Amino acid sequence: MSAVDPAQDQDFLVQLVHRGFLSREQAQLVIEAAKEVLFDDALAAATDWDEQRIDYLRRTKVMSEPEIPGFKVESLLGTGATAEVFSAQRLKDFKRVALKILRPNLAKDPIAAKRFLQEAKLLKDLDVPGVVRGYRAFRFLDTIILEMERVPGRTLEEMLAEGKRFEEKDALKVVVQVAEALEGMRESGVVHRDLKPGNVMIDKNGKVKLIDLGFAGEGMEGTHGAGTTLGTAAYLAPEQARGEESLDGRADIYSLGATLYHLVVGELPFNAEDDQEMVRAQVLESLKGSALKGLGISPMLHFFIEKMMAKDRDVRYSTPNELIEDIRAHLAR
């Protein structure tokens, strides 16, 4: 193993820890051992990595520019709390795909790894036009990779972050498409559980697809255990925020209502300084209609949002199809 500039070694070690390949304790062992031997030798001793793996991690900048056998990796599409998604081309047939790479530190967590593999199975088994298709999952180095359909466009979250506010008609057209995807999932017995603008992709023609089913589950009572809260705080249904054992598709309808509010108002239904305060607001605070009235929004749109975001799920639309029918009737006027 050849010697490398100490500053490069230090940066390499920092990145290995930051990206989840090494624990802080392992890094400290490497630092101590590197006082006596070459850095790569110290790294190999602390990890059991061979020279080829260390060279690979250096060359790919700790997989921030990954090289995956069988694929030509092109560019980073997005980064989330659990994974990074890259555009790629399959070498055997030149098909454009997306590779979702689970963060290595999470790949070591049995619960996170299981959830990632469950998402892969769901995406492979689901045949819903409005939901991204999954092809296969495979293990590579210290992580798991999901190969899936490459969806062109941008997320609603990206558009909102740039200050875009949707016209009422355009927002409702988006909501209808998302609801169609949710209806397809409902028919397959799947609850999304984490519907939000960041998980909705829209292309230049206005076509919508759901791109992340990391928290989705089979069974209309998507159980994850009492007291367990999954999803994103700003869009959580009250029953999700309370950590109730069973969820059904009405939780997704609430999240879609919060998304609709965000699209037309340009801000979240509830403001909070942290997730804990946001969860409390989802459970206890009433939706403030003043923001909607001040924007000249139609009474019918106000009705949609109020009904979709009702604290009592029995008051909400019972299925996405019911919502679709009402919105289509309104748009046809």
Content of β-strand: 15-25%
Helical fraction equals: 40-55%
Largest sheet: 5 strands, antiparallel
- Discrete helix count: 14
End-to-end gap: 73 Å
Rg for CA atoms: 23 Å
CATH topology of the largest domain: Transferase(Phosphotransferase), domain 1
Descriptive labels:
single chain; 333 residues; alpha+beta; Phosphorylase Kinase, domain 1; Transferase(Phosphotransferase), domain 1; 3 domains; 5-stranded antiparallel sheet; 3-stranded antiparallel sheet; 43% helix; elongated
What features would you describe in this structure?
The chain is an alpha+beta fold and 333 residues long. It has three domains: 44 residues, no CATH class; 79 residues, Phosphorylase Kinase, domain 1 (2-Layer Sandwich), CATH 3.30.200.20; 178 residues, Transferase(Phosphotransferase) domain 1 (Transferase(Phosphotransferase), domain 1, Orthogonal Bundle), CATH 1.10.510.10. The protein contains 14 helices and ten strands. The strands form three sheets. It has a five-stranded antiparallel sheet. Strands 6-8-9 form a three-stranded antiparallel sheet. Strands 7-10 form a two-stranded antiparallel sheet. Strand 2 and strand 3 form a beta hairpin. Helix 2 packs across helix 3, helix 8 runs antiparallel to helix 10 and helix 8 packs antiparallel against helix 14. The longest helix has 20 residues. The radius of gyration is 23 Å and the shape is elongated. About 4% of the residues have low confidence.
